[in-house]
Amino acid sequence: MRRPAALGALSLAAAAAFAGLSGSYIVPLDHAAIQYNVRPVTDAVARLNQKIARGEVKLAFDSGHGYLRSVLEQFKVPVESQVLVFSKTSFQAPRISPRMPRALYFNDSIIVGWVQGGDVVEIAAVDPQQGVIFYTLDQESSPRPRFERRDTCLQCHAVGATLGVPGLVVRSVYVQPSGMPLFHAGGFITDHRSPLEQRWGGWYVTGTHGSLRHLGNALARNPEHPDQLDTEGTQNLTDLSGRLDTARYLAPTSDLVALMVLEHQTHMTNLITRVGFEVRMALHDQAALNQALHEKPDYQSETTRRRIDSAVEEMLEYMLFIEETRLTEPVRGVSGFARRFTSQGPRDPRGRSLRDLDLRTRLLRYPLSFLIYSEAFDGMPAAARERLYRRLHDVLTGRDSQKKWSRLSAADREAVFEILAATKRGLPDYWTQPAK
Q: Facing residues of 62 across strands?
């Protein structure tokens, strides 16, 4: 049967996804299966807006930080998660410098940004279906303040670095004493796969890490040689008081462990969004073909199945930390973030959690992303979750013995399987079978 030309183009677009999600293409946010700008959202900010409008919640305002403290309390974002970025890489760039860094606070689904003297508090919230939604809250006292959606953020937050979807990014750059990045020197998008020596340029880092090196806390004083950083006193730094007025911030730290967790979850969040979008578009395009060709409504072509499987496989490899950079020495933060983070996870009958940290040779003690518990993960299309659960089961039980999974020891596989089976709701029935 000859296919209409317009429908044939859908298959060409689908084929482009096979090369991998990273850098493949920018997802069309007006696609009928996505409609990012018009579909309603149910993220934490949208829910709080409704409560404020109904008079059920009031935000407290103070002269030092505006609404910041109250916002963190409402979203249950711990102060210990504070990390400080001094590069001018925000729309509030004029107010940011090494003496006045931008503060970020986060949990699994919210990132809050605050700048000294800033006009707004910045919020990035993960919606279960629509990916990351960006908001600002005016720093002016009001009886009923409102978070306003800010889609202009997509200019920097829906690009190749975010997998082509509205997403998050941790960027490492070479920074002048003014805070201005030396863009001609390049930089790095960082996550748990990045070598430590490429991480945290333009960020403050407090914590200990032995002889391991990173780009944090350092300035590029010679624009002609940006890689020749002034690194004296920048490693194993535990006190920032000589670099900025820490009393102006909610915490005196920019915790190393918090940075590592944030890096992991930014790319993981983007993968969850991209896989969800990819599967929704694939199923929508397939339905259009089925209707045009008078095929069964639920028919899936080989192209559609490959499109779904390819997207899920890339997420599976990342969430199992297959390419994680190994630590050769232990690392430790100084803010109490590690303790706070590990206290939040569901635990199996043996007391184990996917939020248990290792910090000696890797980030997590049990190598599977804790974001498998997130609303965003559960909000992915059923076809994506079903495929992911099947592939994860295959890997953890040893049914899939490909070489790429060899970094997972038998003990790791067994532990992750048992923790998930005991703590994750909605697993298919075949997960009752023990790992081998």
A: 66
| Model confidence pLDDT, tens digit, residues 342-395 | 999 899 999 999 999 999 999 999 999 999 999 999 999 999 999 999 999 999
The answer to whether residue 242 is domain-embedded is: no
Separation of alpha carbons 412 and 297, rounded Å: 41
Inter-CA distances, 231 with 33, 187, 213, 220, 241, Å: 49, 17, 10, 9, 17
Residue 364 structural domain: 267-432
Structure tokens belonging to residue 387 = 């495929």
Contacts of 268 (CB under 8 A, 6+ apart): 318, 319, 369, 371
Helix 302-319 vs helix 5-15: crossing angle, to nearest 10 = 20
Q: How many domains does the chain have?
A: 1
Q: Is the pTM of this model over 0.85?
A: yes
Say if 400 falls within a structural domain.
Answer: yes
Measuring CA to CA, how many Å separate 120 from each of 78, 93, 218? Answer: 20, 13, 28
Q: pLDDT tens for residues 123-165? A: 999 999 999 999 999 999 999 999 999 999 999 998 999 999 9
pLDDT of residue 307: 87
Kindly state whether residue 4 falls inside one of the protein's structural domains. no
Neighbour-count burial of 309, counting CB atoms closer than 10 A to its CB (0-12 exposed, 13-18 middle, 19+ buried) = middle
Distances in whole angstroms, Cα of residue 164 to Cα of each of 25, 169, 175: 6, 12, 26
> By three-state DSSP, how is residue 316 classified?
helix
Residues paired with 106 in a beta bridge: 111
User: Are 204 and 101 a contacting pair, CB within 8 Å?
Assistant: yes
Q: 289 Cβ partners below 8 Å, 6+ apart?
A: 3, 7, 10, 11, 295, 301
Per-residue tokens: 64: 């030092």
Tell me the pLDDT tens digit for each residue of 49-100: 999 999 999 999 999 999 999 999 999 999 999 999 999 988 899 999 999 9
Q: Is residue 258 part of a domain?
A: no
